[in-house]
Specification:
Helix content is 27%, strand content 30%. It is α/β, with parallel strands linked by helices and 201 residues long. Strand 10 and strand 11 form a beta hairpin. The structure holds glutamine. It catalyses: aldehydo-D-ribose 5-phosphate + D-glyceraldehyde 3-phosphate + L-glutamine = pyridoxal 5'-phosphate + L-glutamate + phosphate + 3 H2O + H(+); L-glutamine + H2O = L-glutamate + NH4(+).
Length: 201
């Protein structure tokens, strides 16, 4: 941001659908940079953890020496938004991870990977998201996780009809089990950019 008023958003670009996030963010007027190295992370006002495969993102972030800087950035209050695999990566604890799978943590939740199993790999539904107001959000779930347990520091922003939580917020952290970056509904990204601007102000 550095005086320009234009937020600079990093998109973790190790694996997954980081390009789709970059397109949405640029459409909203943000500067977008791919983050693959600690130096790139140090220069951003906010960070997106994209969808993809959380176990691969975990391994690559450790291999590239990014896991510790990412944890420090989250702990220092950097606004971070994780979608799907990114929500898994941001969770304090996960169930049904692969052997040895780690997360960055920060969000006070337990997230279950691949919660909808092979019979319902992908589906779409409309969700009420009161914090965004207006029309329901059309949500696309792709081998999606759910929030099994919401800790006291986290708040649910949206739930499925059966009550399972699929969007959460905790201070500067935001997570969705679905993929707003593929639907053309920019409200979650706009909400995140508001957080980034408030944090930088
Ligand atoms: N669309 C996604 O990001 C899928 C997440 C994936 N199932 C994982 O465990 O990381």
């Amino acid at each position: 941001m550095a005086g320009s008023g234009t937020p600079r958003i990093g998109v973790l670009a190790l694996q997954g659908d980081f390009r789709e996030h970059a397109i949405v963010l640029r459409g909203l007027g943000a500067d977008v940079v791919n983050v693959r190295r600690p130096e790139e992370l140090a220069a951003v006002d906010g960070l997106i953890l994209p969808g993809g495969e959380s176990s691969v993102q975990d391994k690559l972030s450790r291999t590239f020496g990014l896991a510790e800087p990412l944890k420090q950035a989250i702990a220092s209050g950097l606004p971070v938004y994780g979608t799907c695999a990114g929500l898994i990566f941001l969770a304090d604890r996960i169930t049904d991870g692969i052997a040895g799978q780690q997360t960055l943590g920060g969000l006070d939740v337990v997230v279950r990977r691949n919660a909808f199993g092979s019979q319902l790999d992908s589906f779409e539904t409309d969700l009420d998201v009161p914090v965004l107001g207006g029309e329901p959000v059309h949500a696309v779930f792709i081998r999606a996780p759910v929030v099994d347990t919401l800790g006291p520091r986290a708040t649910a922003l949206a739930s499925l009809a059966d009550g399972r939580v699929v969007a959460v917020e905790q201070g500067n952290l935001l997570g969705t089990a679905f993929h707003p970056e593929v639907t053309g509904d920019i409200r979650f990204h706009a909400y995140f950019l508001d957080k980034v601007r408030a944090h930088a102000a």
